[in-house]
Structure formats: structure tokens, C-alpha cells
Amino acid sequence: MTASLVTDHLRDRGRLPGAGARSLRIVDTAVGSFGFELELPPALDDETQGQRVPSEIADPHVEAIVSTSQLLDEAATGDEDTLSDLIAEIHPRAAAKVRAFARVLAENDALFAVAFGDKQVRFDNDAQARRVVESLTDSDISEEEEAHTGTLLGVLPESRRFEARLADGSVVQGKVDRSLSNITAFKQTWENHVATLVFRVVRVRSRSRTILTAATPLTDGGSREDVEPTETA
């Protein structure tokens, strides 16, 4: 989950970038149940070297724990709108790992609870684990890249929301991808300019979410590096 939050191009298989750099470690047993207390070791200064960590993520490992808990909770309750938003923020590979964990619970009639900060997620019956497995079925989740000529009408830096008008006149709304960490400079460079806009479209059954991942000049095929201008651009 951490890799999906901080890596530009997480592949569908193979080694995870930075895997094992900060693994959770058991520090105590949980009182009153068969469980454990876990913690992350202190961050290393060069831990995220070579990774693009969005500025709003103070600690991507903490964000990963929060995202995993939310994904389990929403998948168990069957809220497809919220679930679609969460899956759009991560890589399908990460969602598949959460589904695999839930399958182990379901196959063994096991219950589950996790508490982090002031939030708690718990499965009080095996039906909740089965709902997670059904909600995160691979065939119901797809991700495609689309490129369209259009104009970026506006970007809200805090919420990372965008609105764009495509060449056919349709208006597209969605989120700006986490990989575009310098969102202020991106907004200054591309807002109200006709460009080739690249989107990641995530579909969870009947719901779809659009994530803006790049913008390039119409006269230049460009690359992902072209869309991350400096503050002085």
C-alpha cells in the first residue's frame, strides 16, 4: 500500500520499491484478545530517497495504514461510491492484497479488529470478510489510461480537485494524481491552456473515477517529467 502511494509507476507484479525499509514490528500483546500491538520504527533520513512523496503525506507508511483500514471498512459495508474513491487513490495491486487478506479471514471463519489513533475497524462476523472479498473482485475493478485534448479550467490545490473541458465540449471532473507533488506550479503552468491531458480512469463496477496524471503541449508528445515544472516556471 505504501508503494502505491509514493511510486509513480508501480508494476502489476515484481519487487515493491523500498520493500522492507520500515516494516511493522510487534512490541507487545493486545490486552483481552489474541492480538498484538505493532509500531513503525523511526523513519530514516534517506528512506524515501528516489521516491516522490506528495507534500500532504507526512509519513506514507502511516497513510498506508489509514488507507488499508478505510478500504477494509468501506468494502465490508458495501458503499461503492466511497470504495471507488479509495481504490482510485491506490494501485489495483494493493487492493488485491487487501482482498487476499480478507479471503484468509473468510475461509477460516476468523474475526478481525484493528485500532489506529482514534479509529477502529472490526469484523464481528465472517459475512463482513466475505463482503470484502466480493467488493474487491479483480473482474469488477479496472484501470485505463486515456489522453484527450482539452483545457484545464481549474485546480483546487488543497482538495486536489480539477475540472477540464475536452475538445468535444464535455466537462470532466476528478482528482489530481498524487505524483504531481508541485500542484501549485502545475496549476500556474497549465490552467486555461489547451493541452493534451492524460487521465487514469478507475472503474469499480458501475462507478468510475477520473484522475489527472499529466499534461503536455499539443506540439510535443512530452513525458511525465515534462509536467512537473518548478515554482519559477
In short:
The chain is of the alpha+beta class. The chain has helices at residues 2-6, 60-77, 80-89, 92-107, 126-135, 183-190; strands spanning 25-29, 36-39, 112-116, 119-123, 141-156, 161-166, 171-176, 194-204, 207-216.
Describe this structure in words.
This protein starts with a helix and ends in a 17-residue tail after the last strand. The chain is elongated, with a radius of gyration of 19 Å. It is built from six helices and nine strands, in the order αββαααββαβββαββ. Residues 46-57 and 221-233 have low confidence and may be disordered. With 233 residues, the chain is of the alpha+beta class. It is 29% helix and 29% strand. Helix 2 (60-77) runs antiparallel to helix 3 (80-89) and helix 2 (60-77) crosses helix 5 (126-135). The protein has two domains: 2-136, no CATH class; 142-227, OB fold (Dihydrolipoamide Acetyltransferase, E2P). The strands form three sheets. A five-stranded mixed β-barrel has the order 5-6-7-9-8. The protein has helices at residues 2-6, 60-77, 80-89, 92-107, 126-135, 183-190; strands spanning 25-29, 36-39, 112-116, 119-123, 141-156, 161-166, 171-176, 194-204, 207-216. The longest helix has 18 residues, at 60-77.
